[in-house]
Write a structure and sequence with these properties.
The protein is mainly alpha-helical and 262 residues long. It folds into 2 domains: 102 residues, no CATH class; 159 residues, no CATH class. It is 65% helix and 0% strand. The longest helix has 38 residues. It is globular, with a radius of gyration of 20 Å. The chain starts with 9 loop residues before the first helix and ends with a helix. The structure holds zinc ion. The site of zinc ion has 8 residues, from loops. Zinc ion (ZN) binds next to loops.
């Protein structure tokens, strides 16, 4: 990662603010898309508890949240801390990508790609399903990244479909025979939403780094998967957040990882 530091960090600060504003838009997407609420109408955000429209000066990323002490000004209901968290996260992601790519076309592409992946991740966490069109948008955006390889994207898609076939067979047949858990008979090893993300990983990172990103994602997903299984008796763990995290980590630290590998 090469840090292009401005004299006083003003560029980084401005980029962070821009990221915060996009983060506030991602909050709208995460909240409205799965519920099919229009993005244009109602134009302004509203309190999820009392449906009061939020005034523009109450809707400034982070600032309003701290001024309102995390409460709706009308009904005093707590605003879930996930909202400022997503704003902070988006701001941070934007600055990190900027530090790597500088102000370039690739920076814009990768920032938008990770905005889409962030939106998908939080929707996946909440609903364990994601809108198809958002996956397609993510895949289409990644194609514009200058190092994107179609061959690798297709290779990864093929590999993951085959792998899924085997793992699903294992879960539905072998694991079922051992555990006699009826739920397993219909369980697929992955959500269909994971396949386009894996294609993005292959296309953006290439074969070597792409495999590392997916292995990393699998490692990161182990703990929540065990937690879900044991404590919530839930056999499904959303995988898109971990794939996105793996992609982000390997994308940012690609030079370091290549150096370690060689
Ligand atoms: Zn309210």
């Amino acid at each position: 990662m090469t840090l292009k530091k401005g004299k006083d960090g003003l560029a980084e600060f401005s980029i962070f603010i821009v990221g915060l504003i996009f983060g506030s838009f991602l909050n709208v997407l995460i909240y409205r898309l799965p519920q099919n609420i229009s993005l244009i109408n109602p134009k302004r955000s509203f309190c999820p508890s009392c449906n009061t429209q939020i005034k523009w000066y109450e809707n400034i990323p982070l600032l309003s949240y701290s001024l309102l002490k995390g409460k709706c000004s009308k009904c005093k209901q707590l605003i879930p801390p996930i909202y400022p968290f997503i704003e902070m996260l988006t701001g941070t992601i934007t600055v990190i990508i900027y530090s790597k790519l500088g102000l370039s076309f690739d920076f814009i592409i990768m920032a938008i790609l990770f905005y889409v992946l962030t939106t998908l991740s939080f929707i996946d966490f909440k609903y364990k399903a994601v809108p198809d069109y958002l996956l397609i948008i993510g895949l289409l955006i990644s194609i514009f990244y200058s190092n994107f390889s179609f061959i690798n994207a297709l290779l990864f898609t093929g590999a993951i479909v085959l792998l899924e076939l085997f793992v699903t067979f294992y879960i539905q047949n072998i694991k079922y025979k051992i555990t006699q858990d009826e739920n397993l008979l219909t369980q697929k090893s992955m959500g269909d939403g994971d396949i386009p993300i894996v294609a993005i990983i292959g296309g953006v990172l290439g074969i070597k780094l792409g495999i590392i990103a997916i292995v990393l994602a699998a490692f990161l997903a182990i703990i929540p998967a065990i937690y879900n299984l044991l404590l919530k008796k839930d056999i499904e763990t959303p995988f898109i957040p971990f794939l996105s995290l793996g992609l982000f980590f390997v994308f940012i630290f690609d030079n370091l990882i290549i150096r370690i590998l060689n």
